[in-house]
Structure formats: C-alpha cells, structure tokens
Design goal:
about 55% helix; mainly alpha; about 70 residues
Length: about 70
C-alpha cells in the first residue's frame, strides 16, 4: 500500500529506520505507522510537524498536501 507519507519519505530520501529514530520507535513500528497498520499518535504528528512542517491531515492520509492545515497541534 502506497500512502502519502510513504511517498513523501521516499521523495525526501528518509528511510523508515531514520523515521523510527526521529519518532523514538523501532524501524518496525515506523514501518507499521507508514503502512497504516499502527496508529499515529498525537506526539508523532507533533514531531513530524516540528521537524518537517508536515500537516496532520497529510500524515493521516486525509490530504495530499504535506504542508496544508492540521488536525492536531
């Protein structure tokens, strides 16, 4: 399954291992989040916003605009 965040990570050359480091989780957990098997937590969304400016809507798959409005902040 190709999610918006998965495509964005690929375009930005950010590995899921690196994402795990940024979020403070294992690569397997980051992989689960990116593929939609594990829920994103508010703290994850805050980190991705603070580090990369990503909107919650984008990370959660509600928007194709990485830098649009946010659901959680």
């Amino acid at each position: 399954m190709n999610t918006p965040i998965k495509s964005w990570l690929s375009n930005e050359n950010i590995s899921q291992s690196r994402l795990g480091e940024i979020l403070g989780v294992t690569r397997a957990t980051a992989n689960g989040k990116v593929n939609g098997w594990i829920a994103w937590q508010p703290h994850d969304l805050e980190i991705l916003h603070d580090e990369y400016g990503l909107s919650s809507d984008f990370v959660l798959g509600f928007s194709s605009d990485p830098y649009g409005r946010e659901v959680v902040r």
